Amino acid sequence: MNEKQREMLLTAQQGELDAVLMYKALAVVAKEETDKAAFTRLAAEEGRHASVFYAYTKQKLAASDKQAKALTVLYKVLGRKRLYPFIAKGEYAAVKKYEPLIADFPEVKSVKDDEKRHGDEVRALLN
């Protein structure tokens, strides 16, 4: 792997680790049981994604809770109807970021596909 790919993989790995904490925190503050269950499941899936990237980078990273803290505040201030589309947008952005990695790192395709589904699931919580 070249240096650019390594940086992309490390950035992705960090993002997935941070997303674990984000979804766990949202599961705690969410008022609706369906949201809590969805966020708990998504946290576990983001953890699996981080392990996919770790398999390539072999570098242990620590999750940051900055995003989790910010989004729990935003949940309380903005409410779910305004926050969830923002979260879904982040999941869809990951799809685009991961696409260039798939040719050289085939396991990333499953992560990319999951991120699209995550965006769809978060949006569907509002229906």
CATH architecture heading:
Up-down Bundle
Which fold name corresponds to the CATH topology?
Ferritin
- The proportion of residues forming helix, as a percent range, comes to over 70%
What's the helix-strand series?
A: HHHHH
Total of DSSP H or I helical runs spanning 4+ residues:
5
Q: Helix/strand-derived class?
A: mainly alpha
**What's the gyration radius in Å?**
14 Å
How many structurally independent domains? 1
Shape: globular
Compute the separation of the termini in Å.
43 Å
**How many β-strands, per DSSP?**
0
Low-confidence stretches: none
Would you kindly provide a written description of the structure presented here, covering whatever features stand out?
By secondary structure, this protein is mainly alpha-helical. The protein has a single domain (3-124), classed as Ferritin (Up-down Bundle), CATH 1.20.1260. The chain is 80% helix and 0% strand. α2 packs antiparallel against α5 and α3 packs antiparallel against α4 (80-98). The relative contact order is 0.17.
Describe this protein with a few key phrases.
Ferritin, mainly alpha, globular, 127 residues, 80% helix
Put the structure in a nutshell.
80% of the residues lie in helices and 0% in strands. The chain has five helices and no strands.
Write the layout of secondary structure elements.
Blueprint: H1 3-29, H2 33-57, H3 66-78, H4 80-98, H5 108-124
